Amino acid sequence: MAQTTQTKEELAETKETGLIPIFIMGQKYEVPPSLTIQKALEYAGYQLIRGCGCRGGICGACATVYRKPGSYRLEVGLSCQTVVEPYMYITQIPFFPANKATYDINLLEPTGETVASLYPEIFKCIGCNTCTRSCPMDIDVLEYISQAIRGNIRRAAEESFDCVMCGLCAARCPSELAQYLTAILCRRLYAKYQLAKAEHLEKQVKALEAGKFEADLRALMQTKEEQLKTLYKEREVEPAMADETWEPKDKSHL
Amino acid sequence: MSYPPEMNELIKRVEKTRPARVERKKRGEEFPSIPLEKRGEMLKKYHPDFIKGNKRPIKIGPNKEYAISNEVVDLLEAKSRVDPDKINLSTAHFETDVLIIGGGGAGNAAALLARQQGAKVLIATKLRNGDANTMMAEGGIQAATKLEKDSPYFHYLDVMGGGHFKNDPELVYTLVNKAPKVMKWLVEDLGGMFSKFPDGRLKSMHGGGTSRKRMHYAGDITGAEIMRTLRDEVQNYPDDIKILEFSPAVELILNEHGQCAGAVLYNMETEEYYVVKAKAVVLATGGSGRLHIQDYMTTNHYGATGDGLVLGYRAGVKLCFLHTVQYHPTGAVFPEQAEGLLITEKFRGAGANLVNIDGEQFVYEREPRDVEASGIIRECSPEVGKGVPTPTGKFGVWLDSPMIDMLWGEGTVAKEFPGKVILFKRYDIDISKEPMLIYPTLHYQNGGLEINAKSETSLPGLFVAGEIAGGIHGENRLMGNSLLDVTVFGRIAGENAAVFAKQKARVGRLTLEHVKRYHKELEEAGIVTDRVAPMLLPDYSNPEVRKKQLTSSYLGTLR
User: Is the residue at B541 inside a domain?
Assistant: First the structure.
């Protein structure tokens, strides 16, 4: 077993090189302390194929579990967002085999029964809250799962909105839930069926299909560059602080 | 971490000028924008596209003599990753109606539409499905959906103005005209959770260069919401849409009738090559920020290495508009860990000023991106010298996000920018109270492969969609038009590829003759190189470690 606490010699060594020791899957490497875990892996010599995506904290490819010395506690983070600390024990979970239900969204009803029939395992939840503690986005996972169990799809959708679908909740769940997949089902049901429809969108699509802007656009396409520049410069710009009631003075081309 | 004391001192200057700037904004007084006639001058002087010595003419292929970034030319003047003679084309490892190369917004939209046309689809993607720049787009998606104040007419004018009137009119027409329908598809059909008012009206904002507030959004993770929704939908039809991850295409395959008829894939984990036989191909590999043009930091996804440009070019498809590259005005420069990270334009759309070291505004915050970026570069240049220094010796300017709560009410930043709030909270920076330090960062490949409004290319059976295509955005894309572009043209490409597969695809012997011809052209042009392309992944591993990685080929049982 690799060691878990640092010796005096090792501390002295750290000061000299300016590097800090970390353990990548148990193997010790020395890396600069300012790096994220992701960059530390690369510094150590890895060329990442799995476990690296947007490098900006949104795609969920780089789910990482780590433990700091002297603690039994498993902590989580996205490796592209988490800065290394001395003696961190690090491993990535780049893939987790969670079960995704398949469905035709058009045939579903936005009810708790729908969610329950597609993801019946949510009722196995024992409320241990490990999912919430495992979320690198600080989402209250247990809360949205509880809402889904109660059939409150709106709350489940809203509470889970920031989810990057990294799968750490599912990886740590003793009841084998696929929280993040249940969440996207709730968001899609909520957005499609429970949020009020955008009437303006429907109207504009109809107008377009009826060819309302066709002549206007075709004329623009034929316009010479100089004339187009004039039209561009003279176009009325909606003021920054205008609210939804703003309408342009010139109503042509609408 | 938070800001170090010396930066906190500088922030005080920003705080001092803030109340007056907020008051001006409330009165409707804006910092003067740069007149259309002066934009060119500004760009020539400060935009990275115009720095001499960073471009060179391509020596071979359909765009011979066209001068574009050295980093892209390096890839075009490189050999295939694989010896075409070694690929056995008589055995196809996979067969499908439509092969989609790339698992981003365009690829997934194409898959759904091809399926609707009854096609069997195979998506081959380099990383995971959904690992793409689409996922990272934050600000929003433009569409003229509010009929009482907006129409495709104004959207068209804005797109052309942003692109310096060089855009392909047919492509722009298609983009703006299909926009409302695509919005309806994403929001009402697929259930993308966009920000709405209680009555269902979509919320919308300004972006740089827009004349109407038509940028629709889902918090500040619009791209992620679109991507995860499209991906979820694709995954709902596993019988019709197969997905091969970690398997990028390294060459297109043609058939004896001159049609595109498949691709050679490379399994990055097992290192084997696959032959895919298809009746039509959609190339949707995205952009190229990870080439770090002119050593710029980038907002782009790990896999954005311009692979499709290489594949298409070798197969004879022309390039266009690659002489311009988009630098996003606002990439983070502090803290170091976040360098290059995208700070959405939505902050400026909501009224946040850009201010210099003295807390003074120096550019209107809603210029088109190239003009805005040039303004920032000018402010930090030695001749103006009003950039804010970072602890690592870089310069940036302040993006004054705390203005937003003052303009629109306490809590607006938290509500409208939850992603960025969490991110900066990790660095102990509260962006509703403290500004962010930013500098332009490599963001978007304005140009790409030539297409028409049907997403067709000069190669029959090859359809191209998304960031890899050129012409839609001319010489500079406006915010909110790339999420629109990937969905509009992704759908078009998928639909037309499926129709091609049904009606026009011919059975015929597969060939990689075009790759052999390309190799010969390289040789004839006197290009002696050991470069191979596509790049597939950038190399960020430690050069010191690389020096010690001395194995050159398979030795015994290990490479």
Answer: no
**In chain A, domain spans:** 17-92, 105-194
B255 and B506 Cβ atoms separated by less than 8 Å: yes
Specify the amino acid at residue A109: E
B407: which chain A residues are within 8 Å (Cβ-Cβ)?
241
Both B276 and B191 in one domain: the answer is: yes
Beta strands in B110-225 (DSSP E): 121-124, 141-142, 204-205, 215-216
Q: How far apart are the first and last CA of chain B?
A: 42
- Could you report the predicted ipTM of this complex, rounded to two decimals? 0.95
Q: Do A44 and B545 touch (CB under 8 A)?
A: yes
B266 inside domain: yes
State how far the Cα of B350 lies from the Cα of B311, in Å rounded to an integer.
40
Mutation for testing the B interface, residue in A42, A50, A54, A84 having most B CBs under 10 Å: A54
- Domain A17-92 in CATH 3.40.50.10490? The answer is no
Above 80 in pLDDT, residue A14?
no
Q: Name the A residues in 118-157 with CB < 8 Å from any B CB.
A: 137-138, 157
Contact yes or no for B181 and A225 at CB 8 A? no
Q: Which mean pLDDT values do the consecutive 10-residue runs of chain B (559 residues) have? A: 90 97 95 92 94 95 97 97 96 97 98 98 98 93 98 98 97 98 98 97 94 95 97 98 98 98 97 97 98 94 98 98 96 88 91 96 94 96 95 94 96 90 89 97 96 98 98 96 98 98 97 98 95 96 90 75
Do residues B393 and B406 both lie within one domain?
yes
pLDDT at position B156 is 98
Q: How far apart are CA A73 and CA A250, in angstroms?
A: 64
Range of the domain at B369: 5-30+328-442
Flag whether residue B184 sits within 8 Å of chain A, measured between CB atoms.
Answer: yes
Q: Which of B28, B131, B299 sits opposite A53 (nearest CB)?
A: B131
Q: Which of residues 169-188 of A touch B (CB under 8 A)?
A: 184-185, 187-188
